Structures are given as C-alpha cells and as structure tokens.
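Hi everyone,

Forwarding the result from last night's run.
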Amino acid sequence: MTNIPTTESLITGALLKEITGAIDANKPVRKKLPGGGRLHIDRQLPFLCVFRRRGGDGVDAAERLLLGSPSYLLVDGDPRYSDQLNSLLTAILKTLGKYFDRFCLLELWLARTKDPSSDLSFDILSPAGQTPQRFLEELENALLHIRVSEAKPRLKVRYPESVSPLGLTPLLSAEQRQSLNCIALGLAVSPVYLDADSGEELPFRLAALHQGLNRALKRGFFAFIHHHTRERPRHFHELGGRTMTAAVWDTDRQLAEISNGFDLLLYVSPVNSSQAWREFETQRFECEPDFLYRARNVNPSLLKRALFQIPIEQIEDPTLAHIFAEKRNELDRQLTLVADRNTPRFLLGSRQIYGDVEDALLAQARELLVTIAPSEPGHSEDYLDAAQIADLAHTDLAAYRARDPGLKAGVSIRDDVPGILVSHGNLLIGSDARVTRERAKAIINHEVGTHIVTHHNGNQQPFRELYVGMAGYEALQEGLAVLAEYLVGGLSASRLRLLAGRVLAVHYITTGAGFIDCFRALRDEHGFSTKSAFDISMRIFRGGGYTKDVVYLRGLGQLLEVLAAGHALESLYLGKIAYDYLDLIDELQWRQIVKPPVLRPLFLDSDEAQPRVRALAEGLSITELIEA
C-alpha cells in the first residue's frame, strides 16, 4: 500500500456528493480515496466494515481480511484525517439512514501480540448500554468455527464506553451514533498468519482466516439485520457481494481459454482401439496391445506459463478466489498429464487428480460383481450402428432446441474415437460404435441429456468455468449421467456391473497390475466377456494409466447421498459443478450471481421418471437402484 500522504486532502465535497448519489441510486460504489484508501459499497446495506491503517508489520495483510465484504472502507489512521473520515462516515450513514432504521458500524484491527503465530484469538468490543445481543451471539459462534491452526480459536467480549483501536479515537462520537441510529463495534484479530520469528506472511493461514472471517461477518450481520432492524433477508449468503471486479472476469476468461485449449480425454483416447482388439484376439490375449494416440497440438509448458501468470491473488472475493485457485491447480495437473502421456509418470498424475479407490468403494464394487450375475451378450440384430445412434441424438437435440434455440451442440461420427463421448459440448460417436436398442435411450440421456445439457446451461452462466467444468466436476457429472440412465429405466444390472468392473480395474492398476493381469482378472475371476474385459482394461490403461473411470460408481453413490439429504436434483444441472463446491454454488445463487439452469433435462418431465425422482429424495442405495 502507499505511504501516508502529508498534504493531500482525503475527501472533497465533490467526492462526497458522488458517493452519496450512487448510494441513493442503489448503485455500487467502488472508489479509490486520496491517501491510498478505498471504499466499496455493493448496494444499500445496513452495515459497514472499516479498517484504519496504523503502519507496522502485517498491516497490508490485515486490511485484506475485509476484501470480499460487500461494504467496507479502508482508510489511513493518521489523526490528521480524523475529521475528514468522520465527515465521510457521517455522509454515508445519513444517506443509508433513509432506507434502514438501524445501522451497524464494525471496525476491524490487528491485535498487538508478542507471538503472532500463536493460536487464533478474537476480541469483540461492544459499547456498554448499546449491546446488540443477538448479533454478538451469532458472531461469537461463527468466529469459534474458524479453523486456521489445530486449536480452537480463543474469544472474549468486552463492553467499554467507546470502541476504537489503541491510540485512535472512535470513528463516531456518542452523539453521532445516537443521531444516526448506529451501533459501533470493534473486532481485534490476532495476526496468526505471521511467522513469529521473521514476521513473514503465511499465505495459507491468511487465506483460511480470510474465508472464515468473511463468512462469520455475514452470519453476524444477518443476525443484526434480522433482530435489530425491520429488514428480513432470507439467508446470510444474500448479504454477499453481487458486483464483480474486472479481475474476476479476466481470471475466469483466461482459465476457460486454457481449459478449452486442450482436450485431455481425446489425447488419451486410442485412435486404433478396433485394430488393437483384433490383434489382441489374434495373439490369444497373451500380448499387451499397443495403443496409438492423436498428436498433441499444444505445448503444456507454454500453457502452464500462461496459467500461472493469471493474477488470482488480485481477486478480493474469497469464495471466487478459492474456486479459481482450485481450477488452476487442476489445470496444472491435467497439463502435466498431457506432457506425461505414455510414461510411468502418467499414472501418478492421474491418481493425483482422481484419487485411489477407497476401501468402501472397493467393497461395494466387489459386492456388485458377486450379487449381479454376468449377462449373456445380445444378438446382432438388436444393435444400432453409429449412424442410427447419431439419428437418435439429433432427434433429442431438436427437442432441446425447441426449448432453447441457442443450443449449439453438434453430432459427429469419427474414425478416431472409441465409443461415444462428449467433447466441448459436442457428441462424438466412434464409427464402429454399436449399442443395443434397449441401451440406446439410456446412452442418449447420459450423453445429451446430461453432459450436453450441463455444458449448455453452464455456458449461460456469467462464469465460463461452469461450462468448462469446475475442479473435480467429473464425479458429479458422471453421477448425474448414470442417474439419467436410471430415471429413463435404462440402468440395467449389467450396466452397474460394468461400472463396478471399472472400479476393480482402477484398483488393479494402482496396486501394480499390468494390462494382461487386469484383463485376466476381469475375465476369469469376475465373469466379464473377453471383449468387455478388454474394453475396461483399455479405458484404464490408456495413456499410461487413466483412472478417471473410478468416478462413475463413486459419483453415483455421492449423488444418492446428496439427494437423500434434500438437495434439489434440478439445481445440479446449472453447469458442470463439483460436489466439493455445492455449498459455494448455493452461496453464489443466494448472491444472485449464478442463475438457475436454462435447460431442464427432458427425461425429468417423463411419467416414468417422476416416481423415481421422489424415491431418490427419500433415500436409495445403489443396490436398491437394481431392484427398482
């Protein structure tokens, strides 16, 4: 931040008029103040957070704790500016007093402590005789739930005659507080994010404190508004900011451009799967097949350079900063996979992204393979070829375009694609793909009704990340896709058996098995046909060990738990979102940033789906899906 100015006036009459005029119009205020200060008021709200700089180690970090709040003021604490600061606050509170019967002014400062890196502590100051009890109770409870270090935060509440940091005068006099119907409180935070010896900033601690404090303050202000004013917001997340800075949009755009710049799934999909199968069969399943891949038309190193030039640290909103940082981490790992294709490092990188098979998931997969008997292969006349599959997809897409003509998805039949998949919102069908007539409906709703619909819905959102996919989105995405098969009556026992086989194959490769070992175990121990055992093994061993297939059964199980807990199914189609961020997506919806889905999957309106949807809300296990 800038040094303390010596002659520059902090606030002018013209600036005050501009600020109060914007507040009256309920427009966002985001002003740089003379002297290096900053005022941000997202909209008319009955609270304001203030930080006065006093110099010294850690001050820059301390004031960043308020960034992301929808209403904050950062100013210089030099006593020479006290009168002008008082004039600014008085003007703001008078203007907001036209719309609210009571106002909360909270000042944050850094607690003085001998050991900055000790356990987190909070000191709440509330003026005696003017105590908003419900606000204090909620704020106390929320602060105690913040975790920066292992120990639980320490907290105390004091009731002095006036509130201000040591050495500074109160922001408002008692008479002003009374005339403005304002309650002024203070919150001293220990600098737990500073190293005790060097005084250096500890960024992970600072980020955890920033996220936790931002949430705690919203909870506190929600209680204040509900119990000490006439306003009645529905949820504390409604108090979050709605105005996004340029840094947010730039970061989202750059991350999406990098994500769209390569397709990991296509890079690791063999282009000779049919030929590899024929050679494997000719060699009596004794020699590991050689898979060929398309050329990589990107330079991972250059993309990584661009990736880490994105200044995510400039994003004030802690929720969005966290979401974007996690996406950057995932893109970094995915680009490493592109570079490491067909090397021993590839499997290690894949395991970093998708994780290993959990004990409970492995046990469930084994149970399904024992419970469900292997099925007999269908007759050739029951199969649809690639052109017939494409016709069904075109019919479904036409029905969706009748609801939203803006849907741009296309369908392509390609020689270099094994099976059927969606890439960048388009359906790609391998030229030798065949599916049984009874499976075709399930596959179309899996690919079109889920993957293409969520891609399209995400593309209608303000953030591009919701169509390229949040970090870790595959589990929820594939869980929804498999659930679509169930809702249209196409999730057969054999299909679940196949998903369980994929989990076993991931377990085999991560515990040291080779392609032939995996193939034989699936065929000889678990009853898969030679072709199915080959296909499963190919999916897992492609590229050097692509373990994504663990997410199908895992994601389905997680989805059933989410729906049984009361989460609305339809809301999960608003884009390519992830289980880990459902709470954050809910927050962004309350803040009116993320919108409801534009397209609703067609199958949700069918008569056969309705009783199944109701059953999901009551709670179903994967085994019960078979019985249903």
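The CA atoms of residues 224 and 341 lie 56 Å apart.

Cheers,
N.
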